[in-house]
Specification:
- Strand 6, helix 6 and strand 7 form a beta-alpha-beta unit.
- This protein has 2 domains: 113 residues, Bordetella uptake gene, domain 1 (D-Maltodextrin-Binding Protein, domain 2, 3-Layer(aba) Sandwich), CATH 3.40.190; 55 residues, no CATH class.
- The radius of gyration is 19 Å and the shape is elongated.
- Helix content is 37%, strand content 15%.
- It has 202 residues and is of the alpha/beta class.
């Protein structure tokens, strides 16, 4: 059979090895790399570690998680697209890097459906807007009013287009100003909100 690169989209993942085992008797016979497009400790990284642990327990294979943060997951996707299509490089693919990026970046160096094969959805979760407990805002109405009164201080933490677009839509609907502050993982973004370094996050 012809091998293809594998991606987990949205938070898609690790049917790749089990899929390969069914088709190649000696697969896997070396270490599998699971690329995550965000820093350790973020949501996609945690999903990857839970799934990889169970996969290793069930197959006795070895999987190494490789964090390659940057550009909302696009750096990792570009890297994986350039790897040999041999089944030994898989990826936890966030929706921001796969579906959203293709809609907003006309010159992506990879194609979400031509360069990758989705294997399995491993997680889905709602987005919830949050502010620090020390924020003067006790409601969305308060937050919008505060942002309009303090446009030079109003900002938001984001690590992916999946977080950026909803807040930009919120800004359009409410007229609240807020500058995007990029982070390498949702964990870092959330910590910045807790510390009061950013006004809000998801």
């Amino acid at each position: 059979m012809q091998w293809v690169r594998t991606v987990l989209a949205g938070a898609l993942l690790i049917a790749a090895p089990s899929w390969a085992v069914a088709q190649t008797a000696n697969y896997p016979n070396r270490v599998i790399r699971d690329v995550v497009g965000f820093a350790a400790g973020g949501g996609n990284d945690l999903f990857a570690r839970v799934v990889v642990q169970k996969f290793e327990e069930n197959t006795r294979a070895t999987v190494v998680i490789e964090n390659r943060p940057g550009a909302g997951g696009r750096t990792a996707a570009e890297y994986v697209a350039r790897q040999p299509a041999d089944g030994y490089t898989i990826m936890v693919a966030a929706s921001g890097a796969m579906s959203i990026a293709s809609a907003i970046y006309p010159k992506l160096p990879y194609h979400p459906t031509r360069n990758f094969i989705p294997l399995q959805m491993i997680a889905s979760f709602p987005l919830v807007m949050v502010v620090t407990a020390k924020s003067p805002a006790n409601s969305v109405h308060d937050l919008v009013a505060w942002g309009k009164a303090n446009p030079d201080k109003s900002n938001y933490a984001t690590s992916s287009p999946a977080f950026t677009i909803p807040i930009e839509l919120f800004k359009l609907k409410t007229g609240m100003p807020a500058m995007a502050i990029p982070y390498k993982s949702s964990n870092e973004a959330n910590l910045s909100v807790v510390a009061g370094e950013t006004t809000m996050g998801e």
